Amino acid sequence: MNRRLLALLVSAVALAVLAQSAAARPPAGDWTFLRKDAFRHYACKVAERGGTWRIRTATFVNGSDDARQHRIGAYAVIARGRGATGASRTDTDWRGAYIQMTLRGARAGDRLWVQGAYYGPARPWADGFRVAAITRCG
């Protein structure tokens, strides 16, 4: 009896861990994992005319359910050069477990920075994920 109860308990814990890790995945399609703060941030890119990229971002709520209640969202910016920034967006509209945003006009040498919008703006020119390394959207 104790062995069965222990096996059932271990199975329940394993299923809970698997469900949590499955929930932390990006939306369907091809995405690059960027970083994790209170949320998990992903991105992919689509070619535009003129040699630029349209960047799609997906921020996963990652168990931070209070984000919806307090209207905490995500901030994304394209950094170019030394301190110059390109397109940026902030959004608090959680759809399901994600906030999705699009930034246009990114160049291969630019960097993408995405963060939870619960603290002030970052210095995106000091960090970020190179646009050239982001996966093409599938």
Reconstruct the topology from this structure.
Blueprint lengths: L1 H22 L8 E5 L3 E8 L5 E8 L5 H4 L4 E7 L3 E8 L6 E9 L4 E6 L12 E2 L8
Antiparallel strand pairs: 1-2, 2-3, 3-6, 4-5, 4-7, 7-8
In short:
The protein is an alpha+beta fold and 138 residues long. The protein is 19% helix and 38% strand. The strands form 2 sheets. A 4-stranded antiparallel beta sheet has the order 1-2-3-6, with no helix packed on it.
Q: What this model shows, in words?
A:
19% of the residues lie in helices and 38% in strands. The protein is α+β, with helices and mostly antiparallel strands and 138 residues long. The chain has a single domain, classed as Immunoglobulin-like (Sandwich), CATH 2.60.40. The protein is globular. The chain is built from 2 helices and 8 strands; from the N terminus they run αβββαβββββ. The chain has helices at 2-23, 66-69; strands spanning 32-36, 40-47, 53-60, 74-80, 84-91, 98-106, 111-116, 129-130.
CATH classification, class level: Mainly Beta
> What's the β-strand tally?
8
Query: What is the level-2 CATH architecture name?
Result: Sandwich
**What spatial form do the alpha-carbon principal axes imply?**
globular
Average residue-wise pLDDT = 81
Number of helices: 2
Structural class: alpha+beta
The helix content is: 10-25%
Total of domains? 1
Over the alpha carbons, how many angstroms does the gyration radius reach? 18 Å
Order of helices and strands: HEEEHEEEEE
**CATH topology label:** Immunoglobulin-like
* Largest beta-sheet details: 4 strands, antiparallel
Fraction in beta strands: 35-45%
Q: Which spans have pLDDT < 50 for at least 5 consecutive residues?
A: 5-22
Sheet with the most strands: spatial strand order: 1-2-3-6
Distance between termini?
A: 50 Å
